[in-house]
Amino acid sequence: MKLSNNLKKYRKNIGLTQAELAELVKVSRKTINTLENGLYVPSTMLSLSIAKILNLTVEDIFFIEL
Length: 66
Known about the structure:
Number of domains: 1
Oligomer: single chain
CATH superfamily: lambda repressor-like DNA-binding domains
Structural class: alpha+beta
Largest sheet: 2 strands, antiparallel
Low-confidence stretches: none
């Protein structure tokens, strides 16, 4: 199983850069980059923070690939 996401799509849809989203959720731009590329599994707090900023559910953004 692998955690995948639609973060880049949703982030771009609302016109945020990686740096802007990172600032809003108090992480580095590199953290957002590694999330979007599937190299980092976010904490529950980070997942919820991102979902709140994007006005989505965690399940809208993150999903498990079997």
